Automatic annotation (TrEMBL):
Belongs to the CdaR family. This is PucR family transcriptional regulator. Residues 493-551 form the PucR C-terminal helix-turn-helix domain. Residues 298-437 form the CdaR GGDEF-like domain. Gene3D superfamilies: PucR C-terminal helix-turn-helix domain. Residues 9-130 form the Purine catabolism PurC-like domain.
């Protein structure tokens, strides 16, 4: 929807139809928006215009000579006038060839009004059309705000928000993270495979195209994409991309739709609904308070003691239980979404029962709302150990108990470090969540009862940080030019760099592993140095690039 009517739409209005309006030149440019109508009989009117005006004249004050008419047309075209309408009968019975020819060359629409025309009626009709369009646009914008406010209040998920964007815009929409990986999408009835084909490369190009745009929303004219950042509290974690078709800037309304959808997605990430039992919800509230520093440690300890879980004067160990899909599952390492909530409720109850059976007080709840980075398929625990409890024995018994039921499925058990103060419990819980995430990425550690930080090493560390925008930014900074070069030239420089670093910077061994002659492999390394502007003989440069490659693998996994 256009706020301003086009010149073609204006010519269809009643007063201009009655005036016998006929396009005499530049008829291909009737899609120009008309911002205003200006009546003028002087040749230097251009200095009073600011662009988008339809100029009405009888021609009485226009120059007689060809050069003067050409200058008049040039000044209107230079200032961006929408068109020129001349009433015949006062000065000319037919438009001069000098006027029509110059308008055609400058692509300035020229309209002949073949009957006497009350110019006031024209201005009233056009200005009324402009005001009506602006009112309609305001109503549409209000509808957008109301719709996304309702979605936010109802706690709509990403799929619902994207579905509404696709409906309002009539175009596909994609939610991606900062590493250009697709998190969710709605194809708006189009072929999803075509929509997501070479998504990462196309998204990188769009991000580069809109990088200089002011504000959070930009338009990639080459692809027709409208892109806005998604995030809150100064921390962006993704982008929302509206895949448009056609040339020219998109209507302002679509930017409003995209930005309100981004706000709804950011709010949904901040406010996650907790649908667990009252006891688990109470435990979850305390865990969330610890993780978010939302409640003083003394208050958490007081409320926990009232629940039968003493936290003061004890050794506190954070534990995270992650669900694992069966081998060969199409969902990979995570369970099917429809099973998650039911399995989490069962797992939380199993874990609480296991802790009671071991005689260890514990706060136990699903981490859907309490997790530091949002872990929808995990249960968190804060074990409260006495001086005589041995951590290894308690953790081993706990892991065995939660896996004992036949319907328990795969579960990764991860533990953080032991701490002695309630205020330090957050560190132990976050460490456990990170270790569980990394262990899951490494296959779940079959045969191991539980995992701790030394078990996951650097690959696990990078995997658990893969959703952190800072790590994604680091990968883009270190490897972005090389990834773009490979995409643009069909090369495999990233793979060559990875082979070189994986073989301890032994060029001969790396060339053999890559099945290339040494001169050919060396040439690839020289090209890597040229594209990245680094020296591959430098230990620090290679270390930085190696970490970036491992992080890239974690982000893409």
């Amino acid at each position: 929807m256009h706020v301003l009517p086009t010149l073609g739409e204006v010519l269809a209005l009643g007063p201009l139809r009655r005036a016998g309006a006929r396009v005499a030149a530049a008829g291909a440019a009737l899609d120009r928006p008309v911002r205003w109508v200006h009546i003028a009989e002087v040749p230097d009117i251009a200095r009073e215009l600011s662009g988008g005006e339809l100029v009405l004249t009888t021609g009485l004050g226009l120059p007689d000579d060809q050069e003067g008419l050409a200058r008049y047309v040039d000044t209107l075209a230079d200032v961006g006038a929408a068109g020129l309408a001349v009433e015949l009968g006062r000065r000319w019975e037919r438009l001069p060839q000098a006027l029509t020819g110059r308008c055609e060359r400058r692509a300035l629409p020229l309209v002949a009004l073949t009957r006497p025309t009350p110019f006031v009626a024209v201005t009233e009709a056009v200005h009324g059309r402009i005001v009506d369009a602006q009112v309609a646009e305001l109503r549409a914008t209000d509808e957008v705000h109301r719709t996304f406010t309702e979605l936010s209040v109802e706690g709509a998920d990403a799929a619902q928000v994207l579905r509404e964007v696709a409906r309002m815009a009539g175009s596909p929409v994609v939610l991606e993270n900062l590493a250009h990986r697709v998190l969710a999408y709605d194809a708006a009835g189009q072929d999803p495979q075509a929509l997501l084909e070479r998504w990462e490369a196309r998204s990188r190009a769009a991000a580069a195209a809109v990088a200089g745009d002011a504000g959070r929303t930009g338009h990639d004219a080459a692809q027709g994409w409208l892109v806005t950042a998604v995030g809150a509290r100064g921390q962006d974690w993704g982008r929302l991309v509206l895949v448009l078709e056609g040339d020219g800037p998109p209507p302002a309304r679509l930017a409003v739709v995209l930005e309100r959808a981004a706000s709804a997605l950011a709010l949904d990430r901040l406010v996650r609904r907790d649908e667990e039992s009252l006891e688990r919800r109470t435990h979850g509230t305390l865990l969330a308070g610890l993780l978010a520093h939302a409640a003083p440690g003394a208050e958490v300890a007081l409320r926990a003691r009232a629940l039968g879980v003493p936290l003061e004067g004890r050794r506190l160990v954070g534990v995270v239980l992650r669900l694992v899909a069966p081998p060969g599952s199409p969902t990979g390492g995570s369970p099917a979404p429809r099973d998650v909530q039911e399995r989490l409720r069962d797992l939380a109850e199993q874990a609480a029962a296991a802790a009671r059976g071991a005689g260890v007080p514990a706060l136990t709840a699903p981490l859907d709302a309490a997790a530091p980075r949002g872990v929808p398929d995990a249960v968190g625990m804060l074990l409260s150990l006495s001086a005589r409890d041995r951590e290894d024995d308690v953790l081993t018994a706990l892991a065995a108990a939660v896996r004992a039921r036949p319907d328990a499925g795969g579960v990764v058990v991860a533990a953080g470090c032991a701490v002695g103060a309630v205020t330090d419990a957050r560190r132990s819980l976050e460490e456990a969540a990170q270790v569980a995430d990394a262990a899951l990425a490494q296959g779940g550690g079959a045969g191991r009862a539980y995992h701790r930080l030394p078990d996951v090493r650097v690959r696990g560390l990078l995997h658990l940080l893969r959703d952190d925008p800072r790590l994604q930014t680091y990968v883009e900074r270190e490897l972005g030019p090389l990834l773009a070069w490979d995409e643009a030239h069909g090369t495999a420089l990233v793979a060559a760099l990875g082979t070189y670093l994986a073989h301890g910077r032994n060029k001969s061994a790396a060339a053999e592993a890559a099945h290339l002659s040494r001169p050919a492999f060396y040439e690839r390394l020289r090209k890597v140095e040229q594209v990245l502007g680094v020296d591959l003989d430098g230990v620090e440069s290679c270390l930085s690039l190696h970490v970036a490659l491992l992080a890239l693998d974690a982000v893409r996994r």
